[in-house]
Write a structure and sequence with these properties.
The chain contains two helices and no strands. Helices cover 60% and strands 0% of the residues. The protein is extended and about 45 Å long. With 67 residues, it is mostly helical.
């Protein structure tokens, strides 16, 4: 349980860092680089956030496909 909580805190910190970078760079014109994302990992992380944020009556079941 404690490890899950620490993982959640770490993930929230990373999202906050990325959001802050995005907000700070919004006013500065910079060259944007495209990068590939791992959609399965994104879906898993988003489902964790939704399940931990919303009431238990709201259930999100998102299982990524095996590739």
């Amino acid at each position: 349980m404690l490890i899950r909580l620490v993982d959640n805190i770490e993930n929230c910190a990373v999202r906050a860092r990325d959001l802050t970078r995005g907000l700070l760079s919004f006013g500065k014109p910079t060259v944007k680089q495209k990068e590939l994302i791992k959609s399965n990992l994104l879906i898993v992380e988003l489902s964790k956030v939704v399940n931990q944020t919303f009431p238990k009556e709201i259930l999100l079941n998102a299982a990524p496909r095996k590739s």
